[in-house]
Design goal:
InterPro entries: Cro/C1-type_HTH, Lambda_DNA-bd_dom_sf. This protein has one domain: Orthogonal Bundle (434 Repressor (Amino-terminal Domain)), CATH 1.10.260.40. It is mainly alpha-helical. Helices cover 50% and strands 12% of the residues. It is globular and about 30 Å long. The protein has a two-stranded antiparallel sheet with strand order 1-2.
């Protein structure tokens, strides 16, 4: 199992580009891009902050991919 995120879907729902969404989350575009492309995952504290900013439960932001 691998932890993955739905940040790209959430960003599209907010109709923002990566720069705008990264600014909304308070991170740099380069780091955000790495999260969105599943190269690394945000830390738990960051996921909790993202959940608060986008007003979604954590479970709708990160999930376990059981196929990996």
């Amino acid at each position: 199992m691998v932890v993955k995120n739905r940040l790209k879907e959430i960003r599209h729902d907010h109709r923002m580009n990566q720069v705008e969404f990264a600014e909304l989350l308070g991170v740099g575009r380069s780091l955000y891009n790495r999260w969105e492309n599943q190269h690394v995952q945000p830390e738990l504290e960051t996921v909790l902050r993202i959940a608060k900013v986008v007003k979604l439960p954590v479970e709708q932001i990160v999930y376990l991919d059981e196929q990996c």
